[in-house]
Design brief:
CATH class: Alpha Beta
Shape: globular
CATH topology: Amidase signature (AS) enzymes
Structural class: alpha/beta
Number of strands: 11
CATH architecture: Alpha-Beta Complex
Largest sheet: 11 strands, mixed
CATH superfamily: Amidase signature (AS) domain
Number of helices: 16
Oligomer: single chain
Number of domains: 1
Order of helices and strands: HHEHEHEHEHEEHEHHEHHHEHHHEEH
């Protein structure tokens, strides 16, 4: 089967073909590596390619599958991971030249679980410096495959670009303020930010410990559910990882969303530009047509939360970087440096006020879900920002607020979300919205995402490269 029939297929489709031996993992992996070689010089999504290791894993997968020892849906499927996940056989730089030679002594837990599931890891994907807002000045940012003038997202930029461009069948991203959701929206991917603690953070470079989430970025809700099933669960090396049982996220996926109570705060969600508003109206119509019960709700004000997020992220990041900042300050880029400086000047009283507001907000969000099953919100207030506009982010308070208004509150509360492609701008770039669920209700997100994606085809459209 020629490469052009394969590279944009969904992970679950490729899984079925490999495990039924209609195609081999080696041929699929080779085709992916060839495509990366042809395209990634200009897309710049990979920080490190692991071709030799990938082909060795694919060879083993083919042998095991031929012998009837199928490990699960990821067995033999080529994927990639964000380059803040530790790998023993490749450097983990976290987008930072200061760590370019960092060779971890063990795999991160999510990497170990992917390997145990038989996934073929093609390489490490590029990201912003330390997983914050900006790429280091010495690191060329990944390029949006739909339009080179538009933002590719942050911080999981490489994960979004590679998944959208057909350079892997799924990837791992991380989300501290929106970093799975921004690149998923910008590149037309399906991104699932799990509940905080649902996925172990052991062996992943830290930005802000109580805000960091690790999750899949894929081409469909089903693919995201398959990947989450592998990486979720308790971990003795991470005491913050939840011991809540991990369900089969695909088992109830096809139940539909008829009679599910889906809330929206129309006033809050109206604070968006015209293309985003039109997209959200269309998405709500599709959701209603699927039989959901759309309910008007009031969401707590988020303006103070956005400000609190910056300060809290800065404080926690300053702790994470204490070994190298400020002692090696000259090797940091301006964006991450500014965050660390912000964190280092806060007082204990400032911190405690933020903690108390955060606890109150978490309680308010939990109470919302007593009357609804899911929440619908935009991903950002502006449709597909350009790289030029994003270059002014630090100078434009409204741009910052609009970027984070619908994302960072759910990092503060720890609620899981799924970002779904839902249209295109006049420039041909993707638009997206989010479903938000109660803690540990990722199965409901996969179910709602699957239903929406059966009724629409936005997630099946791909850039022409």
């Amino acid at each position: 089967m020629p490469d052009d029939e394969l590279h944009y297929r969904q992970l679950m489709d490729i899984s079925g073909l490999i495990q039924s031996r209609q195609i081999s993992s080696v041929d699929t992996t080779t085709a992916q590596l060839d495509r990366i070689g042809r395209l990634d010089g200009r897309l710049r999504s990979y920080a490190t390619l692991m071709a030799e290791q990938a082909l060795a894993t694919a060879t083993t997968a083919d042998e095991e599958i031929a012998a009837g020892r199928v490990r699960g849906p990821l067995h033999g499927v080529p994927i990639a991971v964000k380059d803040l996940c530790w790998t023993t056989d490749a450097p983990t730089a976290a987008g930072m030249p200061i760590h370019r030679e960092n060779r971890p002594s063990e795999d991160g837990t999510v990497v170990r679980k992917l390997r145990e599931a038989g996934a073929v890891i093609l390489g490490k994907l590029q990201l912003t410096e330390g997983a914050y807002a900006d790429h280091h000045p010495d690191v060329p940012p990944p390029v949006n495959p739909w339009n080179t003038d538009h933002w590719s997202g942050a911080s999981s930029s490489g994960s979004g670009v590679a998944t959208a461009a057909g350079l892997c069948y799924g990837s791992l991203g991380t989300d501290t303020g929106g970093s799975i959701r921004f690149p998923s929206a910008a590149n037309g991917c399906t991104g699932l930010k799990p509940t905080w603690g649902r996925v172990s953070r052991h062996g992943c470079f830290e930005l802000a410990a109580t805000l960091d989430h690790i999750g899949p970025m894929t081409r469909s809700a089903a693919d995201a559910g398959a990947m989450l099933s592998v990486i979720a669960g308790a971990d003795p090396k991470d005491p913050t990882a939840s011991s809540e049982p991990v369900p089969n996220y695909l088992a109830g996926m096809k139940r539909g969303i008829r009679r599910l109570r889906i809330g929206i705060d129309r006033t809050w969600c109206a604070r968006v530009d015209a293309p985003t508003a039109a997209m959200l109206d269309d998405a709500l119509d599709a959701i209603a047509d699927l039989g959901a019960d759309i309910r008007d709700i009031y969401f707590p004000d988020t303006e103070q939360l956005v400000q609190d997020w910056f300060v809290l992220c800065g404080i926690e990041a300053a702790v994470a970087h204490d070994a190298t900042y400020p002692s090696r300050e000259g090797e940091y880029g301006p964006g991450l440096k500014g965050l660390l400086d912000l964190g280092r000047v806060q007082s204990a009283l400032d911190y405690q006020r933020i903690v108390l507001r955060r606890i109150a907000f978490m309680g308010q969000v939990k109470a919302l879900f007593e009357d609804i099953d899911l929440l619908v919100v935009p991903t950002t207030a502006m449709a597909s920002p350009t790289t030029a506009s994003m270059a002014t982010l630090g100078e434009d308070a409204e741009l910052i607020s609009g970027l984070l208004r619908y994302t960072c509150p759910f990092d503060l509360s720890g609620n899981p979300t799924i970002t779904l492609p839902a249209g295109f701008t006049d420039s041909g770039t993707p638009l997206a919205f989010q479903f938000v669920a109660p803690h540990f209700a990722e199965d409901m997100l996969v179910r709602a995402g699957w239903a929406y994606q059966q009724a629409t085809d936005w997630h099946r459209r791909h850039p022409e490269l």
